[in-house]
Write a structure and sequence with these properties.
Layout: E1 29-30, E2 33-34, E3 51-57, E4 74-81, H1 89-95, H2 101-112, E5 116-119, H3 126-135, E6 141-144, H4 151-164, E7 169-171, H5 175-185, H6 190-193, H7 196-211, E8 216-218, E9 236-238, E10 253-255, H8 263-272, E11 336-338, E12 344-346, E13 357-359, H9 361-369, E14 377-382, H10 387-391, H11 393-403, E15 409-414, H12 420-426, E16 434-438, E17 446-447, H13 455-465
Parallel strand pairs: 5-6, 5-8, 6-7, 8-10, 13-15, 14-15
Antiparallel strand pairs: 1-2, 3-4, 9-10, 11-12, 14-16, 16-17
Helix pairs in contact: 2-3
Length: 466
């Protein structure tokens, strides 16, 4: 992604705004667009500060004779900032808990003006740009170009720029760091030792440079997006991971205006407003990142399973929102989830059905040791906090109902916490969920090889082996 400054100075969509003027300082310039005094939407009673600004290039260096200064993302550097009391963002988040995304983005833009920008990944977060456009305020957009995005994503960036009349400027990874990584470990090392190192070079460090030119940023994070990492994100917060323009802890504010919005409602909004979308969505992609690490989502899968599918569900953050990641448990037993406020919440069990046998450690061990089973078994290794397990609960329970009376037993074994090491060593657990078939009159077990978890696919697997 790269820092992009976008100006919405030419707003000529189906929504029109009556002009309203007030006395303002000398207008700032964003790219080729002038920051105008747009009418604003009504807003809750929250006090914010107005800033006077001038435009300077991000990471600009003084020109030297004979030197070519690369064009970088445009940013607005404040000249005069009115001193106000430090905002209580926890209270503000509570005040805005029931506000619409449009109201929240309007507040964010009003509060920070040119010191805030929208982070755009090229997926359904285009909704953020549409909301910003509807506020009538000037806004900025940035994105990170990792060098490994799908061609469809690059084309989508161009479409968005033309649709809104904005310019997206990009932050790129350091060429020397990329070269060192590829020469040392190859082009696809993330399949072997995890995605974090590649993401750190191609995404996190460029993002860090971009955010150093801002005081706030707007993200498209939603609570329903990722298991174990985004369920507690607030509407607005002091960024726990990155620093802003002033430097130091607390110097950057992070806005998550669609945190409480369901993915289905985002899509209803995009269709209603006729917003352009990435063509990859029509091919089954939901969460979209780099080409080698993104794939379409299959039936019965959670949307985040299209990302880094070879890794555990709780690891599915690239580092841009690493502040979301909490320990999956605090006592090592895997029975609770740690919330952002430090409290532990008990997560209810899943796959609850009279036709699904709950196996403890002795039960699964006996099943493994049996050399001559009287009936075949289908068992899912799961963790109740895992969104991917939750996503397949309906199909698995339905399968159990259909197999009633067929001679095939259906079971479940909770394999997180203290049981995880055993499941990895003895039950071929790679990530949650893992589905195993224990054939009749056989001591071996067969691991379900497919990512398809719909009833038909699972039934075909059972029928082929029983």
């Amino acid at each position: 992604m790269a820092l992009a400054v976008s100006s919405s100075s030419a707003i000529s969509s189906s929504c029109s705004f009556s002009s309203r003027s007030y006395e303002q300082p000398k207008a700032s310039q964003l790219g080729n667009f002038q920051l105008l005094d747009w009418p604003h939407l009504p807003s809750p009673a929250v006090n914010f500060t107005l800033r006077r600004s001038s435009v300077k290039p991000l990471n600009a260096e003084p020109k030297r004779n004979g030197a070519i200064v690369p064009s970088a993302a445009t940013m607005v550097a404040p000249e005069v900032v009115e001193k106000v009391e430090v905002e209580d963002y926890e209270k503000l988040a509570k005040d805005l808990e029931n506000a619409s995304p449009l109201e929240i983005i309007d507040k964010a833009l009003e509060n920070f003006g040119n010191d805030i920008a929208i982070a755009f990944s090229g997926a359904e977060d285009v909704a953020l740009i549409e909301y910003a456009h509807l506020t009538g305020r000037p806004f900025r957009v940035f994105s990170l170009d990792t060098g490994r995005l799908n061609s469809e994503t690059y084309k989508f960036f161009d479409t968005v720029e033309k649709h809104y009349g904005i310019h997206i400027e990009y932050m790129f990874p350091d060429a020397v760091e990329v070269q060192a990584l590829v020469r040392t470990k190859g082009l696809f090392s993330f399949y072997e030792d995890g995605h974090q190192e590649c993401c750190r070079v191609r995404k996190v460090r460029p993002l860090r440079r971009a955010l150093k030119g801002l005081r706030a940023w707007i993200t498209g994070q939603r609570k329903d997006q990722s298991p174990g990492t985004r369920s507690d994100i607030p509407i607005v917060q002091v960024d726990p991971s990155f620093e802003g323009l002033d430097g130091g802890a607390g110097s950057l504010v992070k806005w998550n205006p669609v945190a409480n919005v369901q993915g289905t409602d985002i899509w209803k909004f995009l269709r209603a407003m006729n917003v352009p979308v990435n063509t990859l969505h029509s091919q089954g992609y939901i969460s979209i990142g780099c080409e080698p690490c993104t794939r379409p989502v299959l039936p019965g899968q959670h949307e985040r399973e299209g990302r880094w599918w070879w890794e555990d569900a709780t690891a599915k953050e690239c580092g841009l929102h690493k502040g979301n990641i909490k320990e999956e448990n605090v006592n090592g037993n895997g029975n609770g989830a740690l919330h952002a406020n430090g409290t532990v919440a008990t997560i209810p069990d899943i796959f609850n059905s009279q036709n699904v046998v709950s196996l403890g450690r002795p039960g699964i061990e006996n099943l493994v040791k049996m050399e001559d089973r009287r009936e075949p078994w289908l068992v899912v290794l799961y963790a109740p906090w895992c969104r991917f397990c939750q996503a397949m609960e309906g199909s698995y329970v339905e399968l159990a109902d259909k197999l009633t009376g067929s001679g095939v037993k259906v079971g479940k074994f909770r394999a997180d916490g203290e049981q995880k090491a055993y499941a990895q060593q003895e039950l071929q657990l790679g990530s949650f969920p893992t589905i195993l078939f224990f054939p009749k009159h056989s001591s071996r077990l067969v691991k379900y090889p497919s990512e398809k978890r719909d009833v038909e696919s699972l039934m075909a697997f059972v029928n082929a082996l029983r």
